[in-house]
Hints:
The complex is a heterodimer.
Chain A: H1 9-26, E1 30-35, E2 38-44, E3 53-57, E4 60-66, H2 68-88, H3 96-113, E5 120-126, E6 135-139, E7 145-148, E8 151-154, H4 158-168, H5 175-187, E9 198-204, E10 212-215, H6 217-223
Antiparallel strand pairs in A: 1-2, 1-8, 2-9, 3-4, 4-5, 5-6, 6-7, 9-10
Chain B: H1 16-22, E1 42-44, E2 47-52, E3 55-60, E4 64-66, E5 69-72, E6 78-82, E7 85-92, H2 93-114, H3 120-133, H4 135-139, E8 144-152, E9 157-163, E10 169-172, E11 175-178, H5 182-192, H6 199-216, E12 232-237, E13 240-243, H7 246-262
Antiparallel strand pairs in B: 1-4, 1-7, 2-3, 2-11, 3-12, 4-5, 6-7, 7-8, 8-9, 9-10, 12-13
Helix pairs in contact in B: 2-3, 5-6, 6-7
Amino acid sequence: MSMPFYVAPEQFMKDKADFARKNIARGRPLIAATYADGILICAENTSKTLHKVSEIYDRIAFAGVGRYNEFDQLRRSGVQYADVKGFQFSREDVDARSLANLYAQHIGNVFTHEMKPLEVEILVAEVGVDSSGDQIFHILYDGSVVDEDRFSVLGGEAEAITSRMALAYTPGWSLTDALKAATAALGGPDQVLAVPDLEVALLIRTESRRAFRRIEDTETAELLGLPAEAAEVVADAGQTKPGAGGELADLPEPGAGDTPA
Amino acid sequence: MTLPLFRPEDDPGPNFLNLLRKLGQDPFAGPELGDKRAVEITHATTIAAIRYADGVVMAGDRRATAGSSIAHRAMEKVQPADRHSGVAFAGSAGIGMEMVRVFQLQLEHYEKVEGSAVSLEGKANQLSQLLKSNLAMAMQGFVVVPLFAGYDHRQKRGRIFSFDPTGGRYEETEFHADGSGGRDARTTIKLGWREGLDRNSAVELAVQALYEAADEDSATGGPDTVRGIYPTVATITIAGFERLAESDVAERFASVIAAKSRKGLSL
């Protein structure tokens, strides 16, 4: 007669957390930061079509790192939730806090009850009518929510990026300063991120309704004070573009996470 | 409310109406009604769209009637559907307003879920599907007839689509007007329309058409100088949907009235 395997709950949860953390850490990072006229979200993303940052509702944006299909499913659910809520109640009743709580419940449930936790970290940001109303919620793989009022970093090397960003952060700074600091923090001391490898989006405070706007490469180059040619993708034979948000190709198959990387 | 999570085979996709249905919130699922005369139905009236050189002018009066009495004086029958298109409706006011709202949400919902906007023809087809969903109500007297116009970025011109209550969709090449005063408006536009009209003449023609419609049709509201309520006039061009300022519309109506008065026509 065979005995069923026994794994202590502590060990089981720790394994799941390690698995999620490790795979999220492989993903390319992103930064969301408040600036004078809204919220800037800047991600390292080589894909032009598979976005990490998207619009949820009038004043709410979404960003995710980790496994693309998982955070994109969360994004869709968020859009569906927000649009139905706005239809049933009113547009002003749709807020980031309740959406962040729903995400946290779902991600937390998956972490506790499913074999495989979600390998994502997501961000829900809402721009207020003035800077005191700006909200940034950072939701982790186990469903814990962190409420940030200055900036938030998601993905790989988050700690190092956070410390670099904390040094540069100035309350009420301009968009150009915020974007320069964010790209410098993402790149680190040894590398300068090329404009085509950045995905930049804003929540603009002064917009009357839909505050979300994507910043195209040419405009990003302009904001960073670079020549327009910086926005062009340099054809490099040695560099192949990873698929799906730069994430899928980096990640191992589920279950393969416990093999040393 | 909970986070809507669907399995891939159950996901309504980028369709907002299907999403509402999945969640048991179909806005057009009306119960079988008995005698429709038991309820006073408010009706909206004249709407028009005219193609010109840069795009389309859309216009509509502001009156809603219930039988022979005026139910509302400041209704907005012409509204932006999204940045580059507009929608107007004639017919049952409550259902028409709801249909416009669902339509606007549908376009925005698609854009957000899919990450790209629907083509102009796709938008017209969406509206036609909404109309079809309302067929049961239309058969009971709650008829809505919308008018859709927009700027087509692929073809670089304004396009107009008219509809019938069953969801039939017809592309109009020059102009169209609908509602109880639609016939008078169409006749007026027909006499003044020519290819390549400029913005000013197109707006003027729309104002004239609404004036004539209000002149002949009791359910169409004219310029209300006492309350300062004027018909809605908007242009849709490559720059998007832009509503004309009420003062501008007021001036244009004043000049139509002045011209008529000189001709010796009584108001």
